Structure formats: structure tokens, C-alpha cells
UniProtKB/TrEMBL annotation:
<feature type="region of interest" description="Disordered">
    <location>
        <begin position="1"/>
        <end position="20"/>
    </location>
</feature>
<protein>
    <submittedName>
        <fullName>Uncharacterized protein</fullName>
    </submittedName>
</protein>
<feature type="compositionally biased region" description="Basic and acidic residues">
    <location>
        <begin position="1"/>
        <end position="17"/>
    </location>
</feature>
<keyword id="KW-0175">Coiled coil</keyword>
<feature type="coiled-coil region">
    <location>
        <begin position="45"/>
        <end position="72"/>
    </location>
</feature>
Length: 141
């Protein structure tokens, strides 16, 4: 039976065979295997194109957002600097500091100044209390 099958002529549809067999150029056959181009279907190409477009849109969105954040940051820094200059100009008569003094340092100087004035006031008050006590004791005798 096997011999009969081998002897039987086979009709090949030449048109169909031509559609399914891809001709490869001799240059392609000489390339190392890693360099031979991989054929992908149109579906994969379309998916990759959509993914690439989505990535481009995401990059464009993030670039715009980054630009907006940089502008907002610059505006905030200008506002902070203006506030610091305004604050310094108001305190210049009361405290001595240079233009590089930070808010924290100025606040510390204010606290120290208030503490010093409170101590001075308490000392003066105690002195006045003693003088008052002496005067009262002198009047009662």
C-alpha cells in the first residue's frame, strides 16, 4: 500500500503554492540568524503603532505638565522672595541682619529679643517693687 501511494501522481495547485511560499533573497540567507528580519503580522504592527502613539501622547502630556509645574515653582519662589524682602524691610529698624538671613534666623532673633526685653522688664519691675516697699515702710514709721 505504501508503494502505491508513492507511485501515485500528486496534483499541486501552483497558484496556492505561490501564495504561501515566500521567496528569500540570497543576501538574507547569508546573514547570521540574529540579524534575519522577523516578519510580524499586520495586527502586531497595528498594536505597536497604537502603543507608540499612546506613549507619544503620554510624553507630550507629561512634558506639558512638567513645564506647568516649573512655571508654578518659579512663581512660588518669586513670591517667597518678595515676602521675605517685605518682612526684612519691616524689621530692619528693630533687628540687625544681612540680606542672606533666613526666615528661621530672623524668627530666632525675634524670640531672643523678646526674651531679653522680658528679662529687662522683670528686673526693672522687681527693682520698682523693692523701692515701693522701702517707701511704704518709711511712711508707716
Amino acid at each position: 500500500m505504501t508503494g502505491e501511494l508513492q507511485k501515485r501522481p500528486v496534483d499541486i495547485d501552483r497558484d496556492h503554492a505561490g501564495q504561501t511560499i515566500e521567496t528569500v533573497s540570497p543576501d538574507t540567507l547569508k546573514q547570521p540568524f540574529e540579524e534575519v528580519p522577523v516578519h510580524t503580522s499586520d495586527v502586531n504592527i497595528e498594536e505597536e503603532r497604537k502603543e507608540l502613539e499612546l506613549l507619544r501622547e503620554t510624553v507630550a502630556f507629561l512634558t506639558t505638565q512638567c513645564t506647568q509645574l516649573n512655571e508654578a515653582n518659579s512663581a512660588w519662589q518669586l513670591y517667597q522672595e518678595a515676602q521675605l524682602q517685605n518682612f526684612r524691610s519691616k524689621l530692619l529698624d528693630c533687628l540687625s541682619f544681612d540680606e542672606n538671613t533666613s526666615f528661621d534666623m530672623i524668627a530666632q532673633q525675634i524670640v531672643e529679643q523678646i526674651s531679653k526685653e522680658r528679662e529687662d522688664f522683670n528686673e526693672k519691675y522687681q527693682t520698682l517693687e523693692k523701692v515701693n516697699d522701702i517707701l511704704r515702710s518709711g511712711n508707716s514709721v
